[in-house]
Amino acid sequence: MSLVNLAHVCSHLNNATKARLGLTSIPNTKLHLKLCLALQNSGYISSVVRGGPTPPPQHTLLGVPSVNDEVEGVQSLTQSNVASRRLWLGLKYWQSDPVLGKMSVVSKPKRRVTIDVAGLREVIRGEKSGYVEGLRSPGESLYLSTDRGIMEARECVEKQVGGLVLCRVL
Length: 170
Fold this sequence. Notes:
The strands form 3 sheets. Strands 6, 7, 8, 9 and 10 form a 5-stranded antiparallel sheet that branches. A 3-stranded antiparallel sheet has the order 1-3-2. It has a two-stranded antiparallel sheet with strand order 4-5. By secondary structure, it is an alpha+beta fold. The chain has 2 domains: 1-96, Ribosomal Protein S8, Chain: A, domain 1; 105-167, Dna Ligase, domain 1. The protein has helices at 3-18, 30-42, 58-62, 117-124, 153-159, and strands at 23-27, 45-51, 86-91, 93-94, 97-98, 103-105, 114-115, 141-146, 149-152, 163-169. The longest helix has 16 residues, at 3-18. The model has no long low-confidence stretch (mean pLDDT 89). GO terms for molecular function: structural constituent of ribosome.
């Protein structure tokens, strides 16, 4: 798991929302895919589509099938094109404000921050626990990498699991 690349993705998403982009792409890795799917489940981004260096068609992003669509997986993944694979993200806006406000990395490559369930309860209540500041605003989220995948902090408390704190979304 590369936390350096995660920091690049967080800053890229911050810049894309400030520039009011509707569609952006990030490198395709397992960590990025799982984090983006968690962000989509929380309602911060509208769509996550795997693709190549060019953006996918608009109907693919919206999830509407078309008559002329290729069957998923027809383009074979080879050693020569694996580096050019991208995740295309649809960003959401509400009344011309970005839904994904600010995204910041908590764990860094030299200081990985882990937290247990008791510490997560404190963070959800708004209190500081170790290196992790509490969640203050209602729309704020904290994402953790656990042995059950990447989950939001409130979901981790429900399932009684702790893990590595990845990022905070305001």
